[in-house]
Specification:
single chain; alpha/beta; Rossmann fold; about 15% strand
Length: about 220
Amino acid sequence: MRKYVIMGVQGSGKGTQAKMLREDLDLVHISVGDIFRWHVRQHTKMGAQVKRIMAAGELVSDELVEEVVRRRMGIHDWNYGFIIDGFPRNGRQAEFFMESYDIDAVIHLELPDDEVRRRVLSRRLCPSCGMDYNLIADRPEQEGRCDICGHELITRADDTPEALESRLTDYHEKTRPVLELFRRKEVVHDVDGRPPVDEVQQAIRKTLGLPAYRG
């Protein structure tokens, strides 16, 4: 069983790389952000709370994040392992996770702040079907329209310049120290997140001793 955490600043490609690892390794991809976005789309009570927090460029409380992670991990559908992204984001969350689950490796995607700004401010989202786009590398066929359902694309509430700067500050102040906690256990693998997606995936697999990505 393989149990991985993938970390990196917003826009570093955590979700994309996690899904690629999942494809042929039978891993369950657990994205805390996707769980919250589902609640927002379904207009649940939690979704309304998360929407207000995201619009302000703030992070969801530790209590709420831990509750969501505990509930998701409790499903126990990860027979061959899991890869979790968007968690942990601070020392408290890291301690909670390390106390509950053994981790084989932490994949850390390194990306300079300037590149983060370039990538994040180019992201677009379909509010109807949830499809993600990026105006740099993954543009829709029709400008401003989802290829799947035709709905008008929007900018995420947390992808504004102001919200991004707040998240960058929060990441450097709170999340980077989490890496130091994991480094003490010698499970952190630093990977350059700047190359093309496939190259980053191959680098991840090489450092973890996994089979090469077949595409």
